[in-house]
Structures are given as C-alpha cells and as structure tokens.
Design goal:
Chain lengths: 291, 291, 291, 291
C-alpha cells in the first residue's frame, strides 16, 4: 500500500509520521513545506504538488475545511492524478453536503471514497490514540483497517455512506459545544450567588460529569484560560453551522444549536474569534453583567 | 445527637435506615405510614405528627418540594416544636427563594438552617454513597459532618449561605437536563442519516462523554426506555423552572434553559409527564417527524 | 351605581376623573394621597382606607401588580367591606393564576368578579379611548357596560371566565414585546450593512407594519429614545414572565417568549431596568458589538 | 431605454406588462414560454434565449432565487450579451453574498448592478403599487427611477451598495415571519384558555396591530386557511436562512430567527412545505397538543 498524505497541519503531521514509523511508503505534500521536509527526514517522499501522487493506492487528506479540500483535491489535481481503483480517505471535519459531492466526484474518476474524521487533538494523534469515525463500503473499510489501526485506538463504523461518518463527527462536536455552553450558563448562575465556578465545575467533573470533555473544558472555564486555543471560537462556530446545515437538509430542529450559534456570534462580535472555543462560556458571564 | 427525619420517600427511607444502622437515635415521620413502620422495626421512634419531635437536636427533611416542605415544617408544626439551638438540615431540592425564606423562618425560632441537597438516586442513597452539596455556617457544618459521612461518600461545601447549595443543586440538574437534550438533538440528527442513535451514543459515552450522567441517560435514550421513571418529566420541568427563577432574580440569561423548558412543555402536552425525564429526547425525534 | 376606585396611578387617575365627569358617584383611595385629593376637588369622596368603601356597588381596581392588588383588596380589607352582590372589576394587568384566585375569593364573599384589563397608555386613558378586554359573566358585563363606555372606545368580550381576559392581555403584551424584539434584531442586521435603522423602520412602519405598536416603538428605537419610560423594562420582563407562567400551566411552548426573557435579563444585568421596554432593542445592538 | 426582462413568474409577468403599457420597448424571456407569448401579444419582443438581449440598455431580472439567477444570467449568457454601460436591475429576493458576487461579476463586464427587491404580492405588482427597496450608485438610481415609477408606488433608497437593499428585503421578510410566529404562539396561549384565536387576532389587528402584515396573515391564521399559498413554507424557511447568513457574516445574533428556523423545520418535517408560510402558526398549536 502506497499512501499519499495531503495536509500536514497539527493533526496530519503526527499521523503521517506514525504511518512512516509503521513502515508504510508515504508521499507527502503540504501548502507550507516545513512539515513535509521534516517527514522527508523520516523517509517520506516529497510530492512536488498535490497532483504528484500518481503511484499512490490510498490518498489520505486532512485539510482545514471544505474549501481547502476542494482546492487541493480538485483544484490542484490530486483526484485526477489517482489511478482508477484507488481509495480516498478524507479524515477532516467537513460538511455533509461536501462529503456527498466528493463521494460523487471520486466515483466519477473510479476512485472510492471513505469518510473517516477523528476525535482527539494533537497529542492524541501523536500517540496514535485517535478515535476514528468511519463510513463507507464495508469491504473497503476492511481493506484500510490496518491504516486506522496505526492511527487510532479504535475505529467506529457508522454505515456504508460516507455522509454518515461526516454527520456523526458534526454531531459529536455539537455535543462538545453544548457541554461548554451548559457549563457556561450554569457557571454564570452559581457565580451570581457567589459560588466559585471552579468549585462548582470541580464537583461536577468529579461526579456525574467525570468525562474527558467536561474535565478538559471545565478546567479551562474554571481558570478563564482560553489561549492558546486548541480549537478556535471561529472553528467552533463553523462546526455548529455545519451541524445546522446537515440538520436543515433533513428537517431536524435543534434548539441548542440555535443558542450556540447566537452565542458564538456574540463572542466573535466582541473580538474573541481566536480564543479556544471553550470561551463560549464567557458569553453567559458577559450577558449576566459578570464581566 | 437525636435526629428527627421527616420525609421517607424513595430517598429518605434508605437514608434514615443508614442513620439507624450507624447507631443514631432517629425519630421518623412520613405522610403515608408504611416506611416509618418499617424503620420502627429497625429501632426508629415513630412521631405521631411532624410536631412530635421536640427532643430532636437535628431535624432532617427531604420532602417532595417547596409546598410539601412548607406544609410539614411550618404548617404541621415541626419547626415550632424544635428547641432553640436545634439544626434543620434540608436535603430536598427546593427553590432558592424558598431556601432563603426557610432560613429566615428558622432563624426567628432560634434554629439554624443548613441546605444539603444530594446527587444520587435511590440505590446510591441506600449504599451511603451520595454526593452531598452543602452550604451554611461552617461551624454548623462541622457539627453535622458525622451525619453526612454516614449518608454520603463526599460532602461538598459551597459557602455559608444555604441558598448557595440550593443553587448548585439546581445548576447540576440543569446540567443533566442539558446533556439529555443535547443527546436528543444529536440523536435526531444522526438518525436522519440512518445512523442508529445507539451506535452514536455508545461511541460517545465510551470516549469523550464517558461519564455517569451520559452513560445512564444515553442508554435510556438508545433503548427508548423511559419507564419506570427514576425522575419524572414533570419533575424535570419543575427543576428547570426553579433554575430559571434563581437565574431570573440575578439577571442571568440561560439560553439552553429556555430550550429545555419549551421541550418539556411539548412533552407534557403530548401526555408524557410520567416518563423518566430522559424522555426529553423524544421531543427532538417527534419534531423531526421520526416518531 | 356607586363606584369605589382604588389605584390612582397614571392610568387610574384619569379613568376615575372620566367617571366623575360622566356623573358617577365615585369614592377614591390611593396609597399616596395626592391624586385622590385632586379628584376630590372634582367631586370624588375620599375613602380613609381601602376598607372605607362599604356603600359602593362596584369596585374598580387598577393597581400595580398581583402583590399590590392582594395587599389593598385582601390585606387592607376592601373585599370584606363590600356588600354581597357587589361587583369587583379588576382593570390591572395581573397573572392568570392570581385572577383565578381573586375570582374565588370574591365569590366566597358573595362578590362578582370581572377582569377588564386595558390597552392604551395614559393619554388614551385620559381621552376615554381605551380598548377594554373583558371576561366574566355576560349578564354582569351587561350591567357595567355603561362604565366601560365611559372609559373606553370599545369593549371586547373574551368569555365568561375572568382568566380569559387576563390571558388575552398578557398575550397582547407578549405581541408588543415580540414586535420590539423583532425590530431590534432586524435593526442590528441592517445597521451591520450600514443601513440606518431609522430608514429601515421608517419604511416598514409606512408600509407592511403601519400600525400603532410599530410606529410608536419603531420611532423610539430609531431615535434611541428610551427615557422617560412609558412602561419600564422591568415591567416588560414581568409581563413576559406572566405570559410564560400562563403558558406553562397549559403546556404551551413559546419560543419567542424565551428569547424575550433572556434579552430582558441581559438588559437588566446592564442597568437598564428603568428604561422604556422598547430598549429591549438595545440588546441586539450590544450583542452585535454595535454599542 | 430598451429593457430586457427575464423571469416572468407571478410577479414578473404583470411587471413587464406594466412596462409595456407605459410605452417601453421590452424584450422578454421566460423558462416556460407561455407568459412570454402573452406579453408578445402586448407588443413585447421575444428573446430566443437569455443571451438574445444584446440591444437592451437595461436588464431586469426577477428569478426564483440565487441558483436560478446564476443559471440564467451567467450560465445562459445574459450578462455576457449586454453591452458595456448597460444596467442590470435585480428585483428578486436573493442572498446578500450572491448580491455582492453579482455586483462584482457585472462590474467585470462593464455593467452596473442595482438591487431592487420589492414588497408586495402579485395583485400589488399588477396594480403598479409595489414598494421598491433599492440600493446602488445614486446617479444610476436616478437614471432608472422612471422605471421604478411605473412598477411601484414608492421607491426607497438604502445606500450605494446593492447588498444594502438585499439586506433590507431579508430583514423585512424576517419581520413578517416574526409577526406570524408571534401570532402563532399567542394564539396557542389564548386557545389554551378557550379564547378563540379569531377573537384575539381580530381584536389585535383592529387596534395596536392594525397593519397589512398582521391583518393579512392574522386572518389566515384565524381561519386556518393556508392554501393556496401566496408564499410557501419552504420559501419562508429559505428567506429566514438567508437572513441568518447575512447576520452571521457580520456577527449579529438573532434569537427570533433561530426560533423561526426550528419551527419551519418542524413544519416541513410534518409535510407542510407547500402551505402558505403563515402555517408557521400551526407549529405552536401542534406542540401544545391542540392539533
């Protein structure tokens, strides 16, 4: 299996590195060359452009968003370069509609498409402990399972249509944003009665809500520590919007999503777009006159 | 220490039993006599009425709500019966305003008031593993800590005003209801793309959301198992309303709380008031045309 | 017909004056004596207290809210003072639950109860041009129609249960608050594109929305003129809350009401409780970073 | 002035007819030929395709939406056919982002772009009584004012950037949808107390809300008359979404818009996409268990 890996950002770089360590032949490309050069030292082949991947049997992309993926894979010729029978695994968080379109475009070229977005941040990617949320043809998934085994601790299958994994990823991010918002609202409530939000969140995240998402973001909220951002407010809003779009095309009302959207906008209007998306909690504080 | 224990429902009965087992002298009363008779077999003294508790130095109440507490403690004379210097520990979930009023009323009688609502359901109470959320005068809390040690695995202190513990308890219930609603909305979204909500929630509650609140309610939602109710829809709505009232008196907007309120009302309008409050998730399914 | 008139605020004073001008025998009382003294010059009899109205056959009250009405009519003895067969017309905006309770309390004393809240502000009251929203026994309403004819331009009947008129009044105030909020949100939107909100609202209120509620509040929003208040933010929030309570007891979700509630709280948290309730529009501007 | 008129639907056909009646030379085209043939009898020139308009100095389009406009004007060559110096007046309701893009595309071709969406339905268009909401270069607007004078009773100018008129139109439609939703929620509230919504809305629309938008939609709601649709639920949702998108790109939270979106989705999930957008009011009734 010869893997082409496009998109060597915070997540992609360590993932490609893990594949090299596992013995795969990997051709890499990135818009800015540094991470590719670093991987070359590890044995990766440098692609001159996204189209310089003709010998790859598997294409993995993990690019910023729909637009970046479209530019690199369609605009700069990666898809066209692939041989018929190749497999494209898109591991980025992209919209459901875009997923459906890319599946179609790949199919037209005789390329199979798998959606495999991940749960986990940079350190988890580096440790090869991602949770990988996949959907696509079952036989195809079997074929590339060995890749997922290198990259993640567990691979989850959600169906044979790539759109299903894309939806699950957006739904998961919606769940995280909802948890942040709920912590923000509840913190504003208890602070209004002079209970420290750290005391409140500390109790909750040791008991009923003793889970990674709550512990991680609860600590950030308790300490008002929103920078450096692991995932920005702007990206948080983007993913809420993608969840809303996916919901809208199936007529699914999502009341909390509407609250999230408005509060992210409120935060962006106050200049907080580069903070970590946990800073959503500051909106409830500000609206209550606590800041 | 002589304890009077009023309110022997699902929670109160095992809690009183634990106190008896720990060697305390306990006088008990309940509106319906059965649980009191059972505790009498264990050595409890039966009070003929809520006012028949004159020798108690500590009064513990865990009654249904504000109204029931007021009727029993004020209306039926429990408070008046207590000697000056006694301590009233209210372990029920009641409103913040009511907490403040009861503190005042107790003070007028020379009785100290502690708020100590709990996290945990019946089985947790029986095992003496409750999390006890307290607020009140620190010296008083020290005095009764031995009681909390019998009833719970951990006692949390949130300040010297009883209203603070009442607020924390309402905020915690708000967090649970928010988690249920988020799971309901996300489940409707993934189901619209033919992903089983059980698959989705199973993944989440094994990873980012591997916490008791999510595992417990996630399983109920996955299986559409809302009966018998551990805590009813009607009580869920009541607690959301109490959180909103507490927030309103301090000018704290809570967007998710408004969503919860409307969706609980939708469920009640459809006859679901006796289901477990996790049935909130059915509203998103119904609104999406999935039921 | 001998009328006792309790509550001589901005609305009550001119209404009582109109009844005197129409030739009625009117006994008046107010917490602060000035307006009563003024009406005495016009021929009104001064009651020494709310209970000093024994000879009245009709009691009209238009007091600030539930609490003020309860204190004056029950607490200070007005209801007890009335003869059996008298009629109590409550023209204030009060809660539906309070209306039902007052109807019951009046009935126990052999007094009939009519709810007759009004639409229109002080100048409209002075001109005798109120719209009077009534509910109660039809024969009783016939009996006092002559009074309504003095006070208003039109009397509307909504049923034989006083709660029905109380509900209609709260629903009407909800409609006004919704219109203000919609104008606030839309103004924030157009201002974000450098369209003056005055130009936008001027166009709308000359065309599709050429109605008194829009013209009046639209002009205030266009000019940021929220003081002096015709009706304060605090009262606006109160009435939204009363509408929510009425809705809650019948399981009616009201999404806009939740938005209104949160935005009124936001405004109060920013110190705007004494502004006119049209200042609700400033919340959308602030949240958008326009102020 | 030689006018090319593309898009002869319910609105476009009578508008083009009015221009012919006023003596203008008009070339017409429509996807389905019937309305064009009818106008030809009135003297219009038939264009063989959207590109067959080379001699026109003014292009007016009023097509269904962004996609239809793009297909006809860009895809089928209308814009390319125009001579440099021509003016394109887009009278459809389209998105703000699309407006900005079309302005750019027109500019590249040496064509000027004016946004001029309208308020008013088919009968108003036929009577030449539209309200025309314009934005664009002031001198250009002066040049085509004579056209607007034929089509409408009044032309409103909102600035020199076409996006401004597009925004105003979306904001106006948001206002209408908000009014419908408020009537729906208030109607559910009063109906829960057995007050007929027709009585309630009849009172309101004779008093505080005596405006065309309320009278028109209030009557439809009162009579549950949602078919035939003047403007469908699906289009209502589309315009709310466009308002949200315009708001989102400027960080403007709009709480009511979120409520509208969810309730339109609820209605579509229940099969009501072809009803008049006033059927939004049925969602509140259904959620309350009244239907």
């Amino acid at each position: 299996m010869h893997i082409a890996f496009l998109g060597l950002g915070g997540m992609g770089q360590p993932m490609a590195s893990n594949l090299l360590n596992a013995g795969y032949e990997v051709t890499v490309w990135n818009r800015s060359p540094e991470p590719a050069l670093k991987l070359a030292e590890q044995g990766a082949t440098l692609a001159a452009s996204p189209a310089d991947i003709a010998s790859a049997t598997v294409l993995i992309t993990i690019l910023a968003d729909d637009v970046a993926t479209e530019q690199v894979v369609l605009g700069q010729g990666a898809l066209t370069a692939l041989a018929r029978g190749a497999i494209w695994i898109n591991m980025a968080t992209v919209s459901v509609a875009f997923t459906e379109e890319m599946e179609r475009r790949a199919h037209e070229k005789g390329v199979s498409y798998i959606a495999a977005p991940v749960l986990g941040r940079v350190d988890v990617a580096a440790a090869g402990n991602l949770n990988i949320l996949t959907a696509g043809d079952a036989a195809l998934l079997d074929n590339v399972q060995e890749i997922f085994d290198v990259l993640g601790q567990k691979t989850w299958r959600f169906g044979d249509r790539p759109a299903q994994a894309a939806t699950v990823k957006l739904a998961a991010n919606f769940m995280i944003a909802s948890a942040i918002e709920a912590m923000g609202e509840a913190s504003a409530l208890v602070e209004a009665y002079d209970v420290g939000k750290g005391d409140f969140l500390g109790m909750l995240t040791s008991t009923l809500f003793a889970a990674p998402a709550y512990k991680n973001y609860g600590a950030m909220i308790a300490e008002d520590r929103y920078s450096p951002a692991g995932f920005t407010m702007k990206l948080g809003l983007k993913d809420v919007r993608l969840a809303q779009q996916a919901a809208e095309s199936k007529n699914v009302p999502m009341g909390i999503a509407g609250v999230l959207r408005d509060n992210y906008l409120d935060a962006l209007a106050h200049g907080d777009e580069k903070l970590d998306w946990a800073a959503l909690a500051t909106v409830s504080a500000r609206r209550s006159g606590q800041q």
